[in-house]
Request: fold
Amino acid sequence: MFTEMVERRGYSLARFVDLVSSNAARIMGMYPRKGALAAGSDADITILDPGLRRTVRKEDLHEADYSPWEGHEVAVWPSTTILRGSVMVEDESFVGLQGRGQYLARKIAPEILAGPCF
Reply:
């Protein structure tokens, strides 16, 4: 999404984050617990490195034997993933503790469910 939105269409980084993170959290009824970098928020962060331009291969993805993105060139690649303050992935290696995930219930607002599909 970064490649299409930021590189090809010229979206600002702030608009990109808003659309893929903040707005997604709002739609799922999870904002501001998710989708915000703020005190009290449950921030999971992925750092994208523009120096790691590459072509997506299923072998580069976790436990996947297929990806619809296989063969697509991307302008960035994730270099670090932080889950609730703990580094989980760094330089493509899992360095965190297993089982750190937490289920968060979500509720899509009725007005969103009733809206048009694009």
Notes: DSSP finds three helices and six strands in the chain.
